[in-house]
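Thought: the user asked what Glycosyl transferase looks like in 3D. I have the sequence; next I should run the structure tool and report back without guessing.
Action: structure_tool
Action Input:
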Amino acid sequence: MLTIILECRDNEAELAQTLSALVTGAVQGIVRDVIVLDHGSRDGSAKVADAAGCRFLTSWDMKDVVRSARGDWLLLLEPGARPLAGWVDAIVDHVSINKNPARFLGSRNHRRPFFKRFVRRAAPLEQGYLVSKRQASATVRTGMALADMAGRSGVRKLVAEIVPAWAVKAMRAESVD
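Observation:
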């Protein structure tokens, strides 16, 4: 039903965080496969992806990636993002009655300060992006990045929250200090 796709570069810890949050979906049979698109990582990203049973690609054509996805729906995420409790049910509910793409709700506990929300637009994948494989196939082009696939219009909100990747990085930086 669902293929998860992430792009990374030296995101070993963040990748591990995201993949651990996806275990629920794999156990319930919702996640069919996970594809990690690597941009030259020199850390243990490949080992983390391999240990989790992901496909780890170091060279790819986005059209081929979408075509090879086993799921009928694609969930595009940033390394470090973590869908919170209820994400599986929210996706199942959405795909059963909707054809439009969707995004998670931003986590109420991990919001950017007001001024930053006001001045700076959120990254295209900050709240994930759920899109049908059919729709993605119709819009994907060679050389396209995942963020380019995350359209801005006609997107519904899933009834589940996600901790954005930037919040995970900020928490890690605070724990190091």
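Thought: the tool returned a structure. Summarizing for the user.
Final Answer: Structure for Glycosyl transferase predicted. Strands lie at 2-8, 31-38, 55-57, 73-77, 82-83, 102-106, 129-132, 156-163. The mean pLDDT is 88.
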